[in-house]
């Protein structure tokens, strides 16, 4: 996601973290096999950019994201 400024991106990152935590709590009893993906969710903010990724291969996702944000 691209935001107007760094402050807006930081606020969105906080909101994403909150949402992921809510999903972990909800999924714990609903579909517990998916909680591991949420435990390794990626929320990375760089300047006015924010990346949120939930995947079963967070290592590969991190590598790809790092290539684009650096």
Question: Overview of this structure, please?
Answer:
The longest helix has 25 residues, at 6-30. The protein has helices spanning 6-30, 35-39, 58-69; strands at 42-46, 49-53. The mean pLDDT is 95. A two-stranded antiparallel sheet has the order 1-2. The chain contains 3 helices and 2 strands, in the order ααββα. The protein is an alpha+beta fold and 70 residues long.
Strand fraction: 5-15%
Q: Biggest sheet, in brief?
A: 2 strands, antiparallel
Which stretches of 5+ consecutive residues score pLDDT under 50? none
Strand count:
2
Category from helices, strands and their pairing: alpha+beta
Overall helicity: 55-70%
- Placed side by side, the strands forming the largest sheet appear as 1-2
The radius of gyration over CA amounts to 13 Å
| SSE topology string | HHEEH
Which shape, going by the Cα principal axes?
Answer: flat
Overall average pLDDT:
95
> What is the first-to-last residue Cα distance?
16 Å
**H/I helix tally:** 3
Topology (elements, then pairings):
Elements: H1 6-30, H2 35-39, E1 42-46, E2 49-53, H3 58-69
Antiparallel strand pairs: 1-2
């Amino acid at each position: 996601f691209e935001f107007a400024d760094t402050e807006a991106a930081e606020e969105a990152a906080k909101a994403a973290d909150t949402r992921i935590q809510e999903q972990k709590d909800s999924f714990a009893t609903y579909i517990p096999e998916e909680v591991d993906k949420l435990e390794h969710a990626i929320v990375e903010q760089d300047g006015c950019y924010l990346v949120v990724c939930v995947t079963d291969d967070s290592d590969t996702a991190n590598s790809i994201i790092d290539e684009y944000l650096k």
